[in-house]
Amino acid sequence: MARQPRKHQTEEQLYAAALRALMRRSYSVYEMRQYLEARAEANSLVRPVLARLKQQGLLDDARYARQFARYRAEARRQGRYRIARELRARGVPDQHIEAALEEVLTETDEGSAVRARIERRLRQMRGPLDEKRRASLYRSLLRAGFSADVIGSELRAIARAGRGGVQEVEAAEQG
């Protein structure tokens, strides 16, 4: 049974709760607003605390989007579409998302990230890369947020290298 968060009655208590939350992880402005509204006795306390956090530079959606995109692209090897979808779900404005993706993805090559994920999956697979496995690989790369064009070109390159026929790759792209 989930217990309710403690309700804070003053702006200072709510500000202290916000600082404790920011010590654990970064928040977007939208996420912090939700966090504070769940912990405030009165919603009128939330706006001044958010303004104070922004003024002190502790909340910044542009910085949050850059950090999030960099981590997801480099450590988790996720693609543009998945990162953008998750940032939108966290309430980050589109202008910050696009700027962060442009900055981060110019540093990383989407094709090499797709190749690395394909190679890792191929090492884990037993047996030949048949049509069913290729389709599964294609779908997993789409879920990871990579564009269909990049996935298709990388799968065709692997097929040309001897891991299956080009027709099978194109059939997987259709499915």
What's the arrangement of secondary structure elements?
Elements: H1 11-24, H2 29-39, H3 46-55, H4 61-74, H5 80-89, H6 94-107, H7 110-124, H8 131-143, H9 148-163, H10 166-174
Describe this structure as you would to a colleague:
The chain has 175 residues and is mainly α. It folds into 3 domains: 11-55; 61-107; 110-174. 72% of the residues lie in helices and 0% in strands. The protein is built from 10 helices and no strands. It has helices at residues 11-24, 29-39, 46-55, 61-74, 80-89, 94-107, 110-124, 131-143, 148-163, 166-174. Helix 8 (131-143) packs across helix 10. The longest helix has 16 residues, at 148-163. The protein is elongated. The two termini are 43 Å apart. Residues 164-173 have low confidence and may be disordered.
Please describe the structure with a list of short key phrases separated by commas or semicolons.
disordered C terminus; 175 residues; 3 domains; mainly alpha
